[in-house]
Every structure is written in structure tokens, then in C-alpha cells.
Known about the structure:
By secondary structure, the protein is mainly beta. The protein has one helix at 5-28, and strands spanning 31-33, 37-40, 43-51, 59-68, 74-80, 84-95, 98-104, 107-109, 113-117, 123-129, 138-145, 149-158. Strands 1, 2, 3, 4, 5, 6, 7, 8, 9, 10, 11 and 12 form a twelve-stranded mixed beta sheet that branches. It is globular, with a radius of gyration of 20 Å.
Amino acid sequence: MPFTRAAALRQNLTAFAAxxxxxxxxxxxxxxxxxxxxxxxxxxxxxxxxxxxxxxEKSAGAYMEIRNGGKETERLIGAYSPAAERVExxxxxxxxxxxxxxxxxxxxxxxxxxxxxxxEGSHLLLIGVRxxxxxxxxxxxxxxxxxxxxxQIELEVQPSDSRKxxx
Length: 167
């Protein structure tokens, strides 16, 4: 069968369509950036981690940096992990000399800004951890954003005395 111009055009269009579909799929599902970050649309999550809980402890903080590269404010409105009974959001505020930690219904990430979730700062709390977390484990976590939808990441478990990500 002779190779015609129409056949060449069909082949090029098919390849282009496949590339467009693959690109769109990457926009909908977060992709890992190396081993320490995830990206979907205008959102990036960098260095997600948790610590080995103390013996007998059934909760663990979750820490990370969330970058909002968009032109509108985003809100983290919830989180879920199969490794815990529930995940709660906590916001730390300071007024003068007092520091207050309180459960929050959402955490705001202003347009083109970052939200840092850290020990002794705003953070997520995995409550009712179902099995022992060991150093080096990876804990699945789904973040729920108001505009950006669900965002699946993994927390790297670090030593119990960690103060910052080590990856």
C-alpha cells in the first residue's frame, strides 16, 4: 500500500492527539518531582514528611511546603490517609507573647505564595495511626483543596527528633 500524504497527516494527527491526552492526564494527577515533591496544575507540594511517633503514641504530625502558583487564593480543606483513622488541620497563631494552636476547618494559601507546615507551626495531624511508622516508610496522604481538588502524596517517615525534612 503506497504511503500517501493523507496517511502521513493521519499519523501525525494521531501522535499529536496522544500527546495532548497524556499532557492533560498529567495536569489532573499529581506527579512526583524526584522523591520529595509533587505537582498538579498550579499547586506544588514539596518535602512532605512525618516523624516516627514516640512508643505508644497513636498520632503523628505531617509537614510540608505547599506552593500556590495560581492567581487566586487556594484553601486546604481536608486530608485523608489510609494509615490513620482521621487527619486534622491545625493552625498556629501568635499574638504578642502568646502562641495558640487550634484545629482549623481550612488552611489558606494566598495566590503566588507558600504555606509552610512545620513542627511547632501550622500542621496536619494524623490521629489513630493504624500501624507502627518506621523510619524510611512512605505514608500515603490525600490532600483536599477547595479549587484544586484531591492531591495524592506520600509522607516520608523520618527520625523522631527531626526538625526539618531530610530528603
